[in-house]
# Entry
Amino acid sequence: MTIGEVSKKLNIPIATLRFYDSEGLLLNVKRDEAGIRHFDEANIASLRLIECLKQSGMQLKEIKEFMNWCAMGDSTLNLRKEMFIKQKSNIEAKISELKRALSLIEYKCWYYDEALRDGNESRVKNMKLDEIPEDIRAKYCGFNS
Amino acid sequence: MTIGEVSKKLNIPIATLRFYDSEGLLLNVKRDEAGIRHFDEANIASLRLIECLKQSGMQLKEIKEFMNWCAMGDSTLNLRKEMFIKQKSNIEAKISELKRALSLIEYKCWYYDEALRDGNESRVKNMKLDEIPEDIRAKYCGFNS
DNA sequence: TCTTGACCTAAAGTTAACTTTAGGTATTAA
DNA sequence: TTAATACCTAAAGTTAACTTTAGGTCAAGA
# Structure
């Protein structure tokens, strides 16, 4: 596949693909006589993995280090495994942080619902904890502690 | 509370607190005669909210816009409610993307576990889909599609 | 033939969200 | 009295991850 085809398929800008290649995030991208890149299935799989690792908060330089380990062969299997184990717990932590954030947002949704019903904030703003419906209070307290 | 106390309590660098204040993310931070900031409970609540919104992917300029709405009173209640509703779905989307990423990472953990057991990648690398245990295959395919 | 489109490189520019620096005031501890 | 602390401002610097620019090659269609 050419760079334009990959760009369309994975929805990644061409400039970004070149940038990743130049940064060493892609192993073994073949070139023809004219110097034009031809991506194979392994390159596509790498790109999907890169997207996923990036999305889970990993930096490009760490991803590059991982790619270097891949190029070094079996002696780095353990390093690579450890990396994924660590990344797994990073993602799990991120998910639970987001769930906590979601609680507060849901409380805020309820808050503005009430305020809009009243036309102003005063009642809901001055509400005591025990006046707040139990399910909403749980969200709010879960966040504040 | 002084800026140093807030910094310790919320674990946010002093310079960052000053930066947020100067950017207009904090409403009504009081100053004494000497020009020293004194944060009240409402400021602390704003900071907690800022952390949460940031963490869920919102930019500082959007957060600032929200703070401006707050300062404008009841006429912006609806805008604020809509913002939280949108942010709620942003977080939900983020969580499901992370779950998808987690699937691939878990597949990779399994992959390197197998490879390490063998001492090399060849067997697991050449495995056909139907040779992969069903639970692992589900993770892998869920990602690739 | 000419121009349009897909590819290439090297290098400079951009953006967000801080972070650091340089220089200053005011209070407290020895 | 001096020296350490905690605060202040304005402005410059940093970092990651792109993105844009400028200039060039090559093949196909009108």
Residues 2-4, 14, 18, 22, 34-37 of chain A lie near DNA strand C (CB under 10 Å from a C1'). The radius of gyration of chain A is 24 Å. Chain A touches chain B through 39 residues (CB under 8 Å).
